[in-house]
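Forgive a beginner's question, but might I ask you for the amino acids of a protein and the tokens describing how it folds?
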Amino acid sequence: MQGPTKLLENEDNWVTDMGAWFPAERVVFRGKDLFRELGDLPWMGLLLYGITGRVPDEKQIRLFDAMWVLCTSYPDPRLWNNRVAALAGTARSTALLALGAANAVSEASLYGRRPGIRAIDFLLRAKQQLDQGVDLKRVVALELEKHKRIYGYGRPVTDQDERIVPLLTFAATLGFSDGVYVGLAFAVEEILLARPKPLHMNIAIVLAALAADQGLTPHEYYRFMALSFSAGMTACHVDAMQKPEGTLFPLSCKRLAYCGAPRRVWESV
């Protein structure tokens, strides 16, 4: 932006067809009347319409709803983002502050939102290369050579991801379990399982594949999943609020492995 031209053009002016509030009259939500045209949509349908500009059908809404339900953050305060929500509760902070902070730290490099957007980005790029005639093993090898990992494969603590079977079982009831990108995700896993250090898929690649099969772009998928951990976080905040203040995972001093300067004895002059 050169000079103040753009700022002057937008002073007291915002041109958009995304939405507007007409006091005591109506609300425009992405070009539609919220009360007259969108009022019968479930929350998930409205969320997806706001993100994509497309009204999902009933089966799609059920799929995306299940993706949130089955893959939310578990109500376990030991998990990294849930601990933030629980800490807010044990400090008697509000639910909004707890959820805001816990969702913010969900944008981690190895967990949460970043692996999700990287997983769907990989699937879309891999499909493009396959369409150009590149062998899938070559696609995987190039990805590993460039990025050292493929997001959506591998998991700490355990190889098996307990969320995959329930989600794909539900997706199958809707006819969404055998899409192109779901098949691609499993084909990549076959290649990774044949390596000296085999890697199993985790839920990130399955979620990304289901979303890609429904036509979501990486950024649409990222925005859709942004608040999906909130259910487990809220439960952790409630749990901590119901217990004595300041009692979440305390550590006694004797458990600290201190390696600093030794204790000093002060002598009186």
The chain has a mean pLDDT of 94. DSSP finds 13 helices and three strands in the chain.
